[in-house]
Amino acid sequence: MSTDRLPPISDGLADALAAMSDTAIELAGHIPGVGKALDLAKSYRSVSDALFVRKIARFMCQFSSLPLAARQAFFQNLQSREDFDRFGEAVLLLLDRSDELEKPAVIGRLFKAAALDLISVEDAKRIGAAVNRAYFVDLSTLAQFEDELLSPTPEISTTLNALGLLVVTGLDAGSLDDDNSGGTYYRLSTYGRNLVKYGLRGDW
């Protein structure tokens, strides 16, 4: 690919920052490590830094939509348990490992759900890690397994099962008479259900 087709790095940073509201930028500065990482990325202006700013922007645009009271209560609870630094480290690690730009927004919604006490912080971390290990397009198949289903895409379902997002509920041995090759039945695990409900859907 010709390099003259690529936007300047400074433009990439500007676009990512423009996507962040003032509230999101201010909030990022209060999360241990995240604000510093954002400042460093803006200073160095490398391609990797521009991408990381985009990841932070996508995460923060979701997480910062929390009502102020819920946000303050969440941070105060973390600080009272001396978990605030670990929370910042977990966010940075998850964002750093996100290899597709759709993933930070999903992770942001998961932590928003944790802040609203809809899921635990540990579950948000665990599900976020599973999101990072998956191919993002594969995650779009999860919603069809809200009820038990014979998998139409066995290879994808096997992978999602290995990530803890689907559970096997039964096997169909098939029949030689009707040329039915059988297959495996799956449904969403608790983690998969929470990912679909809080991470992949933005209308809750």
Topology:
Blueprint (H helix, E strand, L loop, with lengths): L8 H10 L3 H9 L3 H11 L2 H17 L4 H13 L3 H14 L5 H13 L5 H13 L2 H4 L9 E2 L3 H9 L3 E7 L10 E6 L1 H11 L4
Antiparallel strand pairs: 1-3, 2-3
Helix pairs in contact: 1-4, 2-3, 2-4, 3-4, 4-7, 6-8, 7-8, 7-11
From the structure provided, what is the oligomeric state, counting identical versus distinct chains? single chain
How many individual helices? 11
Class inferred from helices and paired strands? mainly alpha
Main beta sheet: strand number and arrangement? 3 strands, antiparallel
- Would you identify the regions where 5 or more consecutive residues have pLDDT less than 50? 1-7
**Largest sheet: spatial strand order:** 1-3-2
The pLDDT mean sits at: 85
Helix fraction, binned, reads: 55-70%
Q: What portion of residues belong to β-strands?
A: 5-15%
Q: Give the N-to-C terminal Cα separation.
A: 40 Å
Rg to the nearest angstrom? 20 Å
Number of β-strand runs:
3
Order of helices and strands: HHHHHHHHHEHEEH
Shape: elongated
Question: How would you describe this protein?
Answer:
The structure is a single chain. The chain contains 11 helices and 3 strands; from the N terminus they run H-H-H-H-H-H-H-H-H-E-H-E-E-H. The chain is elongated. It has 204 residues and is mainly alpha-helical. Mean pLDDT is 85; it is low at 1-7. The chain has helices at 9-18, 22-30, 34-44, 47-63, 68-80, 84-97, 103-115, 121-133, 136-139, 154-162, 190-200; strands at 149-150, 166-172, 183-188. The protein has a 3-stranded antiparallel beta sheet with strand order 1-3-2. Helix 7 (103-115) runs antiparallel to helix 8.
